[in-house]
Amino acid sequence: MLNILDLEQLSPELKSIAQKVKQGERISSADCLVLFEQAELGYLGALANHIRNKRHGNKTYFNRNFHLEPTNVCLYTCTFCSYSRLIKKREEGWEYSHDEMMDMIKAYDDKPVTEVHIVGGVLPQYDLEFYANLFKAIKAHRPDLHVKALTPVEYHYIFKKSHTKCLNFIIGKSPF
Ligand code: SF4
């Protein structure tokens, strides 16, 4: 196994982080920033693999999940995206309702899945209220199902659109 402390070219900050990882200590937010600014992807992989190896040896675990894509219509036009349909051509895509999505969740009731991964395009009707209600309904229906949902661009749009609601939510006034 690669000894991540033996890499001579590491900066003192990266060496200090490697020491923490070797000793099983949690790294701090400031350490994360150092990793973001200084670390090569391969180095991050070596640190992660060190922890994985220490905990699980040669065993590998898989998450059994299924995907749920609320819509493939999107306000944005990311150049790398081969998935979305332009909003001008929204008739080519799909836009599932809350109930349709719950039916899709329920279709997995007898399956040994552990997670639902929800990700899709960005549209106004998929707002904070829509997703909060959806996530609550999923957890009420199947509490053991882990909900992994939304990309940063979806969160950014939802929070930007719901700014007041989010502030109310943060200070303890439910927006719903
Ligand atoms: S926000 Fe997501 S779905 Fe929309 S165009 Fe970009 S990558 Fe595609």
Précis, in short:
It contains 7 helices and 5 strands. The chain is mainly alpha-helical and 176 residues long. The structure holds iron/sulfur cluster.
Structure in words:
The chain has 176 residues and is mainly α. It has two domains: 12-56; 65-170, Transcription Regulator spoIIAA (2-Layer Sandwich). Helices cover 44% and strands 9% of the residues. It contains seven helices and five strands; from the N terminus they run αααβββαβαβαα. It has helices at 12-22, 29-38, 41-56, 98-106, 128-141, 152-161, 163-170; strands spanning 65-68, 73-74, 85-86, 115-118, 146-149. Strands 1-4-5 form a three-stranded parallel sheet, covered by helices on one side. Strands 2-3 form a two-stranded parallel sheet. α4 packs parallel to α5. The chain is extended, with a radius of gyration of 21 Å. It binds iron/sulfur cluster (SF4). Iron/sulfur cluster is lined by residues 74, 76-78, 81, 83-84, 121-122, 153. Iron/sulfur cluster binds at residues 74, 76-78, 81, 83-84, 121-122, 153.
